[in-house]
Input
Amino acid sequence: MQKSIEGSNGCRYKLGDDPDAMVSFKAMGIPEPTQAISAPYQEAVLRGDLTMQSSGYRTIKLAWETLWESQLRALVRRIFSSESDLDAGIYLTAPIRNGWWSGDNDFRTYYCRAIRPNLSGEQEGGPAEKTHTVYQGVTFTFIIDHEVTTIASFS
Output
């Protein structure tokens, strides 16, 4: 079961190489995601007996309706160490979503593998469109390795 939470103007979302020295999206000049969608597994398969079989790790997908090219580059540079990296280890503070609603203000820090988004628009998962200097429909997928700590509720 997937849940989503709408972004806000606060600075609750954070990224970093060290959980004690994370930087907020706001400080990087990046808006909070329009949606944060998490799932307790990567995929579900309908079995022959009509039950669902889940497989894969927990994921968090951060989605933006639009990002300026400069914002997208700043986010990619913060996560990936080189242009050729397809994935990278990173700490992420995002909403708690374990298949149930836990409230808008509950955030936790996770160590994740970030998957580089497809920015060509030629494959599924790529942005819907790029116009001049704006990307539309950008989604980053984070595969959760483990939870690092509980973050106090923000108000």
